[in-house]
Amino acid sequence: MRLSILDQAPIASGQTAREALLDSLRLAQAGENLGYSRYWIAEHHDLSGLACSAPEVMLSYIGANTNHIRIGAGAVLLPHYKPYKVAELYNMLATLFHGRVDIGIGRAPGGSAEATNALSDNYLQQVWKLPELVSDLLHFLDDDFVTDNEHASLSASPIPQIAPEPWLLGTGKKSAELAAKVGLPYAFGQFMSQSDGVALVKQYRDEFIPRKEGERSQVILTVSVICAESSEKAEEIALSSLVWGLQREKGKGQQGVPSINESKEYPLSEKELHTIENQKQNMIIGNPQEVASELRKLQALYQADEIMIVTITNSIEDRIHSYELIMGEIKK
Question: pLDDT tens across 113-126, in order?
Fold first, then answer.
């Protein structure tokens, strides 16, 4: 089973954004040493407790401080940007980090309405134009884009020896249909989807049209996991992330992911306890044997080529240890 990492660069309670981003580097390095296939970092804008608004900047830093793990964005929120500039950025990364760069493409705003308006004009119109934006981006990545003047070509230089590998990310039917139509690998965000993911992935595979000869459908399944030596310890660690989610819904998550003690002391209403139990249904929380068993079940259910794991904890040590325990059990 191939395993990868999705990092949302969470800021812990009492931590600075700089410290959180340095923790992201530690996680990427640990992932490389443990044998994870990819490290992707997410893009968020003005969301309290999340440190990364510019994946391309972090990827240049992480790429320079790792050796072979694939690195990428999960995702570039394409409606905010011109495809040409995105292609330039990721071609630059692929030129620097030969054969290691992925570019995940997403349609979400990644932040508040205010942040969206500050980032881009006519965001909703751009969302409707996503198929066209994706098509343009792929032409630039393939270096085969020709302008209206048939004698003039436009390259997103520098052109790397190995182009960035594009993926389409999503949580619903539209993303699955688009990935199949344009012949892209598909990363399904199970951890944040209420859709029938199994049916969506099957639809994607059934409708897949290869973009290039010999290409096949590929699926990454992204899941939320917290692993510790015991089930009880994993539940204790997971409470930080769950309480933080409640705080953010109330607009009170500015202090970052609370510590285990802070989470235990947080007063929970009956409604909030019920919300937490519902949230846990979309997570895997347990000891290494339990987690590995659930991951294998999901892989078989979705026929996934790869499992990507997102883990949010207060402590970077707990986060890295969770990934270490999972890989150790999977390798047995």
Answer: 999 999 988 999 99
Q: Where are the beta strands (DSSP E) in 137-253?
A: 165-170, 186-189, 219-227
- Sign of the four-CA dihedral 148, 150, 154, 160: positive
Judge whether 265 and 163 are in contact, CB under 8 Å: no
Q: Which residues pair with 186 in a beta bridge?
A: 168, 219
Ordered DSSP codes for 32-52: HHHT-SEEEE---BS-TTB--
Residue 261 CB contacts under 8 Å (≥ 6 apart), including other chains: none
- The identity of residue 316, as a single letter, is I
SS3 165: strand
Tell me which CATH homologous superfamily contains domain 2-232+285-330.
Answer: Luciferase-like domain (3.20.20.30)
Cα separation values, 236 from 19, 256, 286, 289, 294, Å: 23, 17, 10, 17, 19
For the stretch 98-114, pLDDT in tens is: 999 999 999 999 999 99
